[in-house]
Automatic annotation (TrEMBL):
Alphabetical list of PANTHER family matching this protein: REVERSE TRANSCRIPTASE DOMAIN-CONTAINING PROTEIN, TRANSPOSON TY3-I GAG-POL POLYPROTEIN
Transferase is among the record's keywords: yes
UniProt keywords, alphabetically: Nucleotidyltransferase, RNA-directed DNA polymerase, Transferase
InterPro entries from the UniProt entry: DNA/RNA_pol_sf, Rev_trsase/Diguanyl_cyclase, RNA-dir_DNA_polymerase
One annotated GO molecular function: RNA-directed DNA polymerase activity
Protein name, per record: RNA-directed DNA polymerase (Reverse transcriptase)
Residues spanning the membrane: none
Origin: domain of life: Eukaryota
Organism: Trifolium medium
Lineage, opening ranks: Eukaryota, Viridiplantae, Streptophyta, Embryophyta, Tracheophyta
Amino acid sequence: ASELNELKKQLEELLEKRFIRQSVSPWGAPVLLVKKKDGSMRLCIDYRQLNKVTIKRIDDLMDQLVGACVFSKIDFEIRIPSD
C-alpha cells in the first residue's frame, strides 16, 4: 500500500509541475518505483516495448515517405525532472 501511495504522490507532483498530463490514450508503458541510495523512491518507466517499434533512424522514416502526398507535423517534448 505504501508503494501505491508513493506512486500517487509522485504523479500528483508531476501533474502540478505540468511535466505530465492526464491522458485517455490506449498506449502506455509499465511504471515501477526503484529505491534510491538515500531511501527515497524513483519513478521509472519501462519503454522497452515502445523502443521495439520506434524507428531508429530518420533516414528509415524518410524512405517510408517516398511517394506520399499527405504529411503531418508532430511537436514532441520530453521533460525529465531532476532529483
